[in-house]
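> run fold Peroxiredoxin
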Amino acid sequence: MKAVAALLWSGTALLATLLPAAAAEAAARFPKEGIWRGEFTVDGDPIPFNFEVRGRDAADASFELINGSRRDRFVVERVSDDTLSVPMNTYDAALVFTVRDDGTLAGEYRDLVPSRNGARNIPFTAEHGKAWRFVEPGREQPAGVDLSGKWALQQSDQARLRDDNPDERRNRRNQVGLFQQQGNRLTGVIMTAVGDSRELEGVVQGNRFWLSHFSGPSPRLIKGTIDEDGNLQGVSGSGIYNVVRFEGRKDPAAELPDPYQLTFLKDGQKRIDFSFPDLQGRTVSLRDDKYKGKVVIVEVIGTWCPNCTDQTYFLAPWFRQNRHRGVEAVAVAFEQEDSFEYFQKVLGKFKQYFDIQYDIVFGGIADKKVATEKLQGVNYLAAFPTTFIIDRKGEVREIYTGYTGTVTGEYYEQYVARFNALLDELLAEPDPYASADAGTAPPATLAAAP
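> ok
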């Protein structure tokens, strides 16, 4: 009897141990591995997106947003037994959601900027195992148009083009679309004078098309029609932002304004200057000895800016590979909060994420007028990002407005080729201060250089 009692006690104790664990496991649900289809709802309009979950718990899982050939990877964090969060890497936002009883997800895209907390949240749901985006397989309509090629686009709704600079209003109004269509499937990118939309993915149904994008910043939806004469009428909305209308025609010769001519210095100026705090609170200026006689890249950015992020994907590894050649770089950040503590938080994460090995400084609130005033010597800053290339004498040799990412193909390749050619040229020039530092007078042509 004692043996039986002992056995029963042992079984009861084991069951008591297992039941809470089983209950905890059931409560701590996690999305199934594989492909998912999500759908944001903005003013009653669905914006679909796709992602893939790898891993079975928050400790080792990855969450990848898919847009055509582009994949952006994020980590998953557990907020509570029934709530998970996917921080949007360097953007101050997160997907926060629960796994429902039927395995679907329900949550919201949550804006985490302190001054806007709760003001721009976008609800979404998601279903596992659905790789399609706009139209479920078997329900497609034959494509009645082929959008493949280059399109000259123009915004027809001027509500958003509020800027005191008429040139900027004109530049932002004109756009170029690069589209590839295979059957019903449509991918591409829309370029403006100040950047690109990142890769868009969607579908063509008859003479109508839909495109969407979501890779961390606010989701974007573009839709429109093509008439019998080949004219395009469309609407574009970026989730939390206002909707704008555009029109266009296919045009192989369509081009944007020259990005090297959009931002410029004041008359008679050859230099820019600033004094801003870095992440440790130390004041950084281009007059510091660190930059004397160096070629310097000044990148005006914001962590909220997708094109700034894409430009940093290029610049951060480029700098690590080339810093030994006598080049320096500074990222000047204008952020969504005019707070040094906020700057330290978001740029600290930004620096770590990209392994940035150049200086990062805080310029102030994200406003082009503010940036223009604080970057001494600049006549007008047209966009974030903007790149200033400064030679060994401290003079600005080139200014590039915006950024065209890899999805733009030849536009990106041309940018990289010109960037490298100019840096090679400037780095090959003599340091005007080298002989003076060695105790010998510099060449006469350089003697006046400060």
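Residues 1-26, 439-450 have pLDDT under 50 and may be disordered.
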